[in-house]
């Protein structure tokens, strides 16, 4: 199947790449890798643009931010990366392409697309994309390697998460050999935080609560906190891990206000609880140890709903 997808992409005259809203490193990295590999026939579209910490990646400045899907040009191939549900691409209209190709690693992927590669046991979509690009027989450039390494590194939490395998390390090794610079990548992503993010984090940590005899920890960010610090929603990346990192905590819950009466929820598990199952019950999805959803309710009610479900799981 990877060879088939490689052939489809090689032969296509035009490719439009998409990934989920509020993109992370794996989403951005996989799309930019395709852009750098196949060149000008590829256009990358993002509803929320590219988060600041990933703008150092090659061709990140060429990602097209759209407000309405009508702004997206028709293409022969719509390539959807790191997205388990087309509803996570605002306004997505499959009729504007001849073929929809999906490459993903979310276990809750519902199988949309004309051609799909979904491998939930892989560390990242970037890991799968690397194998697809290799099927072309063409050399992986340093620019492509940098994008793929960034996606793998962030989605594995720096090779710390449970989905990090021997294959992941082998791919990372080959990407470094192809020109990816781990120091440059980690410096840009983890050691170049804007002051606004640190100020927001200080307010967020003040909301920390433990629940269910210390097995669940929760944090949240409000719209007021954004206003006080000048921070952006993208600045909350990885905040949930401060809650997961507490001794004895099995599940971490992070909520950020989207608007009054609406929240984005991130769930993280240390392995005993499948948070993808919980997220799916709430209309979302993800992985066993990392999942999320959006809820049309305030922070307090959202936390109450999540804890009610967690009581059944823990």
What does it look like?
The chain has 314 residues and is an alpha/beta fold. The protein has 2 domains: 2-190, inorganic pyrophosphatase (n-terminal core) (Alpha-Beta Complex); 195-313, Diaminopimelate Epimerase, Chain A, domain 1 (Roll), CATH 3.10.310.30. The protein is 36% helix and 21% strand. The protein has 11 helices and 12 strands. The strands form 2 sheets. The protein has a 6-stranded parallel β-sheet. Strands 7-8-9-10-12-11 form a 6-stranded mixed β-sheet, sandwiched between helices. Helix 2 runs parallel beside helix 3.
What descriptors fit this protein?
alpha/beta, inorganic pyrophosphatase (n-terminal core), 2 domains, six-stranded parallel sheet, six-stranded mixed sheet
Secondary-structure map:
Layout: H1 2-11, E1 15-19, H2 25-38, E2 42-46, E3 64-65, E4 75-81, E5 97-104, E6 115-118, H3 125-134, H4 142-155, H5 166-177, H6 182-190, H7 195-205, E7 209-211, E8 216-221, H8 223-229, H9 240-244, E9 251-259, E10 262-269, H10 275-281, E11 285-286, E12 290-295, H11 299-313
Helix pairs in contact: 1-3, 2-3, 2-4, 3-4, 4-5, 4-6, 7-8
Quaternary state of the chains: single chain
Gyration radius, rounded:
19 Å
Provide a count of the helices.
11
**Corresponding CATH superfamily of the largest domain:** inorganic pyrophosphatase (n-terminal core)
The assigned structural class equals: alpha/beta
Order of helices and strands: HEHEEEEEHHHHHEEHHEEHEEH
Low-confidence stretches: none
Strand proportion: 15-25%
Specify the overall morphology.
globular
- State the end-to-end CA separation: 39 Å
* Number of β-strand runs: 12
């Amino acid at each position: 199947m990877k060879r088939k997808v490689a052939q489809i992409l090689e032969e296509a005259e035009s490719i439009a790449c998409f990934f989920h809203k509020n993109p992370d490193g794996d989403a951005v990295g996989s799309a930019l890798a395709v852009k750098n590999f196949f060149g000008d026939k590829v256009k990358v579209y993002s509803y929320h643009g590219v988060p600041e910490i990933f703008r150092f990646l090659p061709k990140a400045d060429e990602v097209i931010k759209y407000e309405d899907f009508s702004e997206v040009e028709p293409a022969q191939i719509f390539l959807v990366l790191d997205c388990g549900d087309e509803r996570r691409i605002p306004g997505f209209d499959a009729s504007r392409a001849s073929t929809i190709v999906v490459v993903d690693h979310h276990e809750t992927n519902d199988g949309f697309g004309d051609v799909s590669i979904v491998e939930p046991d892989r560390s990242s979509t970037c890991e799968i994309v690397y194998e697809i690009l290799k099927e072309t027989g063409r050399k992986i450039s340093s620019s492509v390697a940098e994008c793929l390494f960034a996606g793998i590194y962030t989605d594995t939490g720096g090779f710390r998460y449970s989905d990090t395998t021997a294959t992941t390390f082998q791919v990372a090794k080959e990407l470094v050999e192809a020109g990816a610079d781990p120091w440059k990548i980690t410096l840009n992503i983890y050691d170049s935080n804007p002051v606004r993010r640190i100020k927001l984090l200080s307010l967020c940590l003040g909301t920390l609560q433990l629940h269910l005899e210390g097995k669940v920890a929760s944090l949240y960010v409000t719209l007021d906190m954004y206003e006080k610090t000048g921070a952006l929603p993208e600045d909350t990346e990885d905040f949930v891990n401060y809650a997961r990192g507490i001794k004895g905590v099995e599940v971490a819950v992070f909520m950020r206000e989207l608007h009054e009466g609406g929240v984005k929820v991130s769930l993280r598990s240390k392995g005993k609880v499948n948070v993808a199952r919980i997220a799916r019950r709430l209309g979302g999805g993800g992985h066993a140890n990392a999942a999320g959803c959006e809820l049309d309710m305030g922070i307090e009610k959202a936390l109450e709903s999540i804890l009610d479900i967690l009581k059944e799981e823990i």
